[in-house]
Design a protein that fits this description.
Elements lengths: L3 H16 L15 E10 L7 E10 L2 E6 L8 E4 L3 E5 L1 E6 L16 H8 L5 H17 L2 E8 L5 H14 L2 E6 L14 H10 L4 E2 L4 E7 L7 H13 L4 E5 L9 H6 L7 E5 L5 H10 L3 E3 L1 H7 L5 H11 L3 E3 L11 H11 L16 H8 L1 H6 L17 E5 L11 H7 L6 E6 L2 E5 L2 E2 L4 H19 L8
Parallel strand pairs: 1-4, 1-5, 6-7, 7-8, 8-10, 10-11, 11-12, 12-13, 13-14
Antiparallel strand pairs: 1-2, 2-3, 5-15, 9-10, 15-16, 16-17, 17-18
């Protein structure tokens, strides 16, 4: 539990973590914002007014998109040649438990996700979550993700919160940091939001942190991990603070989220993000659509952990109801954080199923999936006016994908190529808020060797302490 008695001690530990220095930097020439002309690419804007431009330029000035179209005049701009590349907005991952990114390989046959989490979550020290979040941010950037919702559902102390935020400071990606509970805390004890108030004042006094890249939210346990009185107290405390809230809504029976009840309590709307919700009834979906409540859909996780029915059916019914759906990855020990893989799984499974309520519904198309992975995700995080499409005036979160690589050649329809064939290995260049963080297929804004070395050290310590099946070989 986080309380005032542990606050001073924990903050001292957090300062020790941050004093070790970052492993990502905005100090190199490429990772400073500048004036860039992305020239001659196929631009998939995900802006319905612009559509797909088979050959066009994108002008970036001081982190903002200032022009989209053919043959732009950009005197004084540094040219980024996008010949034989697809230019598109950076992906948005709306549900990622980044504190456990380094635990991606802790699961085994007979030792699944929840068993692995129970065996290890209490063992993460502040330095471990700092390393884990940096590992996750670098991995996301490598795969073209420029915005992430860090669903921090094991915030064990103020030191842990500070360590994750220091990682975001160094990580250079856009994010929501959702401060959460302590994993395995008693079900009948409400969350203590004392440190949320401290974090808000210390980092987010002006609304955002780290040059506007990170904003604050809270993730609550929901009824799957807390009693009804504790959950109601959590929600009241979060909403009294006016912060966006994220809730796990079940993948398996019983149905723990009643949208009609949530609506009566004033809990639904654009600032409430529900994740999974495989158990939703049609009436729940209709209420979400009417209130503008977004859904984060983690396709690999829904299939792996969802025992409430076929997730394909649920997804198509969400779309029929008009619920805004975004894509996410959940935890790395369940699914890759690679949005290309999430898009491909949704496209391949997003078809009507005979004999179910989805029969006769429209299948999920390439353009639908791309919107889920970009603009819908931005809107789900309250960032629809900031990112998610290549639109003049938005921030420059832009990626370039090579089409001459062996797995994409000989080219073809651009949206099809991105969803059906592309992988993280095809991402050539990544702009995050106008800074180049990947160029020529190489991460240029991160000390990757150090990130991996530090993550390995934390992983080995946690595995050794946990013991059992996780014991490292001698």
């Amino acid at each position: 539990m986080i309380n005032r008695r542990t606050l001073t001690k924990s903050l001292g530990a957090a300062l020790a973590v941050s004093a070790a220095g970052g492993v990502a930097s905005a100090d190199t020439s490429d990772t400073r914002r500048g004036r860039y002309l992305i020239r001659g690419g196929a631009v998939v804007t995900v802006d319905r007014a612009l559509g797909v431009l088979p050959r066009a330029d994108v002008l970036i000035d001081d982190g903002r998109i200032t022009g989209v179209g053919p043959n732009l005049d950009a005197r004084g701009a540094k040219v980024v040649d996008a010949t034989d590349m697809i230019v598109l907005p950076g992906f948005v991952n709306t549900h990622h438990h980044m504190w456990s990114a380094l635990g991606r390989n802790f699961v085994a046959d007979g030792f699944p996700y929840f068993a692995a989490k129970r065996a290890t979550s209490t063992l993460y020290e502040a330095k471990d979550v700092h390393r884990s979040v940096l590992l996750g941010l670098a991995e996301l950037a490598n795969a073209g993700v420029t915005t992430v919702h860090n669903w921090s559902n094991n915030t064990r102390s103020p030191a842990h919160a500070d360590a994750e935020l220091r990682a975001h400071r160094d990580g250079l990606l856009r994010a929501r940091f959702s401060y959460g509970h302590v994993d395995q805390m008693p079900r009948d004890v409400p969350m203590d939001l004392t440190d949320v108030d401290r974090v808000r004042q210390q980092y987010f006094a002006h609304g955002t942190a780290f040059d506007g890249l990170v904003h604050l939210g809270v993730c609550v346990r929901g009824l799957s991990q807390s009693t009804e009185p504790a959950f109601f107290a959590d929600m009241d405390a979060v909403l009294a603070r006016g912060l966006p809230v994220a809730i796990h809504a079940g993948q398996a029976p019983p149905r723990t989220v009643d949208a009609a009840d949530y609506e009566r309590r004033g809990w639904l709307g654009p600032k409430t993000l529900l994740c999974h919700y495989v158990t939703a009834l049609d009436s729940d979906m209709e209420i979400m659509a009417r209130t503008g409540t977004p859904l984060s859909w983690a396709p690999h996780s829904e299939f792996r952990l969802g025992t409430a029915g076929d997730p394909r059916d649920a997804l198509l019914r969400f779309r029929r109801a008009g619920v805004p759906v975004s894509l996410s990855s959940d935890a790395t020990s369940i699914a890759p954080s690679d949005v290309f893989e999430a898009m491909r799984l949704v496209w391949n499974t997003g078809i009507p199923w005979s004999g179910t309520p989805s029969a006769g519904l429209p299948e999920v198309g390439f353009r639908d999936v791309l919107e889920m992975a970009t603009l819908n995700g931005a809107r789900a995080l309250g960032l629809g006016d900031v990112t998610g499409s290549i639109t003049v005036g938005k921030r420059a979160d832009v990626i370039l994908v090579r089409t001459n690589d062996i797995n994409l050649a000989p080219g073809g329809l651009f949206e099809t190529t991105l969803v059906q064939a592309a992988t993280a290995a095809n991402v050539d260049t990544v702009f995050s808020d106008g800074r180049i963080i990947k160029r020529g297929g190489r991460l240029v804004a991160y000390d990757v060797d150090r990130i991996v070395r530090d993550a390995r050290a934390s992983s080995l310590r946690i595995r050794t302490t946990a013991g059992g099946i996780l014991t490292p070989p001698s």
